[in-house]
Amino acid sequence: MSLRMEQGMEHFRNALATILAERLEFPRGVLVTVLDAKLTRDMLHAKAVLSVMPEDRIEDVKKILKEYEHEIKDGLTHELKMRHIPDFFWVFDTNEAYAAKIEETLNQLEHEGEI
């Protein structure tokens, strides 16, 4: 990928993160972070990777993203000066929970003297 494309993707990710932080209202105690965002070459589709803490609130976040879809697209239109805003595909990162489970298992085995 060219440097210009990479810079464009980074700008898109930053704009999306700003819009999610400033224009959407997530429930109290829920932290949503944009880890990555990619656009297709034709700019018709976008994939955003989000991290949600606590992870048991992912379904709530999905509902909010669907409810505020127009607000997100409107914000990107103004922020990026794009004529056509892509359709979003939201992906949720669950690596933190998986790592915590592994760490808990290792600590338990160490406590029991098996490691």
Q: Would you give an account of this structure?
A:
The protein is an alpha+beta fold and 115 residues long. The protein has one domain (3-111): 2-Layer Sandwich (GMP Synthetase, Chain A, domain 3). It is 52% helix and 22% strand. It has a three-stranded mixed sheet with strand order 1-2-3. α1 crosses α3 (69-80). The longest helix is centred in the N-terminal third of the chain and has 21 residues, at 3-23.
If you consult CATH, what is the topology?
GMP Synthetase, Chain A, domain 3
What is the topology, as strand order, of the major beta sheet?
Answer: 1-2-3
The count of domains is: 1
Class of secondary structure makeup:
alpha+beta
What is the CATH homologous superfamily assignment?
A: K homology (KH) domain
Which strand-content bin applies to the residues?
15-25%
The portion of residues assigned to helices is 40-55%
Integer average pLDDT: 88
User: What is the global morphology?
Assistant: elongated
CATH top-level class: Alpha Beta
Number of helices: 4
Unreliable parts: none
Radius of gyration: 18 Å
CATH hierarchy: architecture: 2-Layer Sandwich
Roughly how many Å apart are the termini? 45 Å
Element pattern in H and E: HEEHHEH
Number of strands: 3
Q: How would you sum up the major sheet?
A: 3 strands, mixed
Short note summarizing the structure:
By secondary structure, this protein is of the alpha+beta class.
Strand and helix map with partners:
Layout: H1 3-23, E1 31-39, E2 45-53, H2 58-67, H3 69-80, E3 87-93, H4 95-111
Parallel strand pairs: 2-3
Antiparallel strand pairs: 1-2
Helix pairs in contact: 1-3
